[in-house]
Amino acid sequence: MSLTDTPDTGTTRAALPSPTGRRATRATRARSWAPYLFISPFYVLFLLFMVVPITIGAFLSMTSWAGVGNPEWVGLDNYARLFDDPSFYTALFNTAVFTVGTMCVVLPLSLMIALALNARGLRFRDFFRTVFFLPVVVSPIVVALVFGLFFDQQFGLVNGLTQATLGSPGIAWLTSPFWAKAVVIILVLWRWTGYLTMFFLAGLQNVAHELHEAAQIDGAGPIRGFWSVTLPQLRPVTAFIGVTVLVSTAQIFEEPFLLTQGGPGEATMSVAQFIYRAAFQRQELGYASAAGVVMFVVVFALGRIAIRVFGAGENR
Amino acid sequence: MSGPSRRRFLGLMGGMGMLATGGCVTAAPADPVTDGAVGLRLWTHDPSYTATFQAALGDRSIMRGSAYAPSLEVTAAAGGDLLTRTITQFMADGSPPDLLGVIISEFPRVMKGDLAESLFLDLTEIAEPFGDDLLRRGPYSLNGRLYGLDSDTSISVLYYRPEEFDRAGLPADAATWDEMLEIGGRLHQATGKSIGMVSNGDNTSLYNTYLQSLIQRGGSPFDAEGNLTIDTDESVEALDLIQRGVANGAFLVVGDPYGAAAGAAIKSGLLVALTMPSWYRVYGLEANAPEQAGQWRLRTLPRFDGGGHIASNLGGTGFTVSAVNPGREAALDLLRRVYLTPEGQLLRFRTGGFLPTLRSLYAEPDFTSFRDEFLGGQQSFLEYARAAEDLPEFFLSENNEALTVAIGAPMLGLYDGDLTPAQVIREATDSYRRQVRS
C-alpha cells in the first residue's frame, strides 16, 4: 500500500489540499513513519548481520571461490562433494561424540554442584560460586595452554601424578584418538559446568520452601523430595540448559582447535573446525559455505527437537 | 493509518543491504606513486621484521639513491590471521597492506585460484639477476613466478652440548645418521638423555618432523608443479630414520617442539642435541635455557647413507608486495634494498639474527667474523656457509594443508612401531588423495 492512495487520509487525487491540509498530511506521514523509524535499528542490524551473510553464504555454497575475483557457479557440486567427503563424516561423528559426552555429564554434574552450593549452612558459598564460575571468564588460549601442560604425555602433570601414585605408564592423552576426544570433553566440562551451575542454582533458589515442607509432611525423605519436588520445579531451567548446551556443543570449535588443532589426524576435528579449515586454511570458501549451510540445517533441526524433548518454553 | 507499507519498508532495508554489499568490490590498481614521501603499511607477526624495516629507513647505506622517502605504519597480528585479514581488506576496499609477511605454512593458501596474482606483485624480475645465489625461492613460487622473498634461510643444523657427549665418552662429530643414532642410543641407555626430538603433537608439528628429515634426505613433499611426491625412496629413508631414532631412545618424543614440553626437555638436560633451524637458537634454546649459554655448539647435519644434504630447512616468512596499492613501487624498492642488497642482509642479521638469503654472503668477513656467545663464541658462519652451499630446495602446493592432516595420524603409528615407513606413506597418500579429490 502506498502513501498517496490510502483511503483514510481524507484527501483525494482530484482535489488539491489546502496549505493547512498539506501540513496535516505531512504530519500524518511523519507520524506514520515514526514506528518504523523506531524499530528500524533492529531491522537494519538484522538485515546486515543476519540476512545478508546468510543469503551470501547460501549463494557461495553453490560456487567455487578462493576469496578474490568472481565466484564460479557450480550448482550443487559442493553439496555432492561434501556428502562424499569422509572428513566431513569424521567431523560429524566427532561433534556427535562431543555433544553426547558433554550432555550426559554436564547436566547432572552442574545440578549436583548447584545442589551442594544451595545446601543450608554452607560456608564460603560466594567463594565457591566464584571459583566455579571462573573458568568461563578465563581466556580460552590460556586454558588450552594450561590443559596442554596438564595432559602432555612426557612432562604433563596428570601423567606425573598417575606415575608417581599408581606407577602406571603415561597415557597418550593428546595423541591417542580416543583420549584426545576425552580430553576435549573434559575441557568443555571444566569450562562450562560452573557457568551452567549458576542457572541451576538460580532455579533452586526459586523453588518454594512450602513445597518441600508439604512433601516432608507427606513423609517424603530427601531423595523423594528431590525427585518429586526439586526436579519438576527445575524443568524450565533444565530445558533451557539442555537446549543451550546441545546447540552450542554442536557448534564446538574453540576447545578442540586450541588444544589439538583437530588432531591427531582428524580425531578431534569438529564440523565447525571442518568449515574453518576449508575456508581459512584451504581457501575453499564455496565448499566451506556448503558445509556451513548443512551445519545450520542440522543444528536448527537439533534445536527444534531439543525444544520439543525438553519442553522448553512450555508453561509449567 | 497512512504510511509506508511493510513491503516498501522491507524493500528499503533490502536496498540498503544491497548497497552495503555492493561496496565490497575489488578496486582496480591505482596509479603508483613514483617518488617522494609515501606512507607504507607493513603487516607482520614478528617485531623483529618491524625493527629491521624501521632500522633500514634510517640507514643511509641502504636507502642511498632511493626516489622515495617512505614511512611505515605497522600492524602486528598473529601470523595465521594476517593473510585472512589481507584478503578481507582487499575485498572490502581494494587496499591490502603494502608489505605483508606471510608465514611459510600460510603461503599455500594464496596458491589457490588466482589469489597470489591478484594480491601480490610478481617478484621474479627483481630476483632474476641473483640466479642461484638467492636461496629459498621454491616455497614462494607459483607457476614459475616468485611472489615472496624469504626473511631468513632457516637452515636446520645440529645443536649439541659437547660436554655431555664428552662426559659419556661419545663423539659428537659422527658423519652419518646411522652412526649418530648408534651414539644416541648408547647415550640414552647410559644416561636417559636424547640427541634429537620428534613431535607427536598437532598435525603441523608432526608434519614438520617429517618435512625436515625429508628435505635433508633430498626429497620434497611436492614438485614445482604442486604434485605430491612423497612416495619415494627418500621419503622411506627419512621416516626410517625417525622410527629407528624413537625406538632406540636417541630421539625424544615431545608434544610441542616449540612450547613448554620442549623447553622442559632442554632445561632439564634431557635433550643434549637436536636438529632445528637457525631461528631455534634464539626462540628455543636461549629463551628456554639462558643458563646454558656457552654450553651449546652447532654443526652441519650428519648425512643419510643414501645421499641428500648436510642441512635442512624449516619455517620462514616470505615478504610480499601489494599488487594494487599506490605505494607498491615504493614498497618494492624498500623490499629490494632490505632483502636483496648486502647492506640490507647484514642489517637483517644484526637486527633480527636472520641468516642471509644470498649464498655468496656466507663467505663475507662481516658474517664469518661473527662469534656467537650463546654458542661459546663459536664462529657459526663457518658451519652455516657449508650448509648454505648444500642447501636443499623444496616446493609447496595449494594442497599442503591436506598433506599436513594426512600424515599426522600415520606418523603416530610410525613412532609406536605399528606402521612401517612404507605404510605411513601409503596411508598418507590415500588420505591426501581422498581429501584433494573430494
Automatic annotation (TrEMBL), chain A:
<dbReference type="InterPro" id="IPR035906">
    <property type="entry name" value="MetI-like_sf"/>
</dbReference>
<dbReference type="InterPro" id="IPR000515">
    <property type="entry name" value="MetI-like"/>
</dbReference>
<keyword id="KW-1133">Transmembrane helix</keyword>
<keyword id="KW-0813">Transport</keyword>
<protein>
    <submittedName>
        <fullName>Sugar ABC transporter permease</fullName>
    </submittedName>
</protein>
<feature type="transmembrane region" description="Helical">
    <location>
        <begin position="88"/>
        <end position="119"/>
    </location>
</feature>
<feature type="transmembrane region" description="Helical">
    <location>
        <begin position="285"/>
        <end position="307"/>
    </location>
</feature>
<dbReference type="InterPro" id="IPR051393">
    <property type="entry name" value="ABC_transporter_permease"/>
</dbReference>
<dbReference type="GO" id="GO:0055085">
    <property type="term" value="P:transmembrane transport"/>
</dbReference>
<feature type="transmembrane region" description="Helical">
    <location>
        <begin position="171"/>
        <end position="190"/>
    </location>
</feature>
<dbReference type="GO" id="GO:0005886">
    <property type="term" value="C:plasma membrane"/>
</dbReference>
<dbReference type="Pfam" id="PF00528">
    <property type="entry name" value="BPD_transp_1"/>
</dbReference>
<feature type="transmembrane region" description="Helical">
    <location>
        <begin position="131"/>
        <end position="151"/>
    </location>
</feature>
<feature type="domain" description="ABC transmembrane type-1">
    <location>
        <begin position="92"/>
        <end position="306"/>
    </location>
</feature>
<keyword id="KW-0812">Transmembrane</keyword>
<keyword id="KW-0472">Membrane</keyword>
<comment type="similarity">
    <text>Belongs to the binding-protein-dependent transport system permease family.</text>
</comment>
<feature type="region of interest" description="Disordered">
    <location>
        <begin position="1"/>
        <end position="23"/>
    </location>
</feature>
<feature type="compositionally biased region" description="Polar residues">
    <location>
        <begin position="1"/>
        <end position="12"/>
    </location>
</feature>
<keyword id="KW-1003">Cell membrane</keyword>
<feature type="transmembrane region" description="Helical">
    <location>
        <begin position="36"/>
        <end position="68"/>
    </location>
</feature>
UniProtKB/TrEMBL annotation, chain B:
<dbReference type="InterPro" id="IPR006059">
    <property type="entry name" value="SBP"/>
</dbReference>
<feature type="signal peptide">
    <location>
        <begin position="1"/>
        <end position="27"/>
    </location>
</feature>
<dbReference type="Pfam" id="PF13416">
    <property type="entry name" value="SBP_bac_8"/>
</dbReference>
<dbReference type="InterPro" id="IPR050490">
    <property type="entry name" value="Bact_solute-bd_prot1"/>
</dbReference>
<keyword id="KW-0732">Signal</keyword>
<protein>
    <submittedName>
        <fullName>Extracellular solute-binding protein</fullName>
    </submittedName>
</protein>
<dbReference type="InterPro" id="IPR006311">
    <property type="entry name" value="TAT_signal"/>
</dbReference>
